[in-house]
Predict the structure.
Amino acid sequence: MDKCIINPELDCIGSAKVAVLTERVERLEEWRDKSSKFHNDFYDWQRTQIARDARLDEQLKTMIADISKVLAWQESQQAKPAKRWDAITDKIVWAVLAAVIAFLLGRIGL
């Protein structure tokens, strides 16, 4: 390839340029292949992240619902002693009222 096709006695002036261009084309094709692989890997990773985020969102929704149930249960448990105390004081008030009414009725003679 160092000699001219038209006149084999002369050196080919385009062979050096062809070699440079051939190397450049090979590097560009290599870069294109690497770039394509990078993009495919990146999009695979991105799809994985989207799926992971969807799973995490679902887990968070479940956790929020469970926390709401636990808080409702805790509030009802904390309210029980207050309800019990209210019931006891209510019974004591009725007992005292019944005793006072019985005493008054006993004084009147009924």
Observations:
- The mean pLDDT is 89.
- DSSP finds one helix and no strands in the chain.
- Residues 24 and 30 are 10 Å apart (CA to CA).
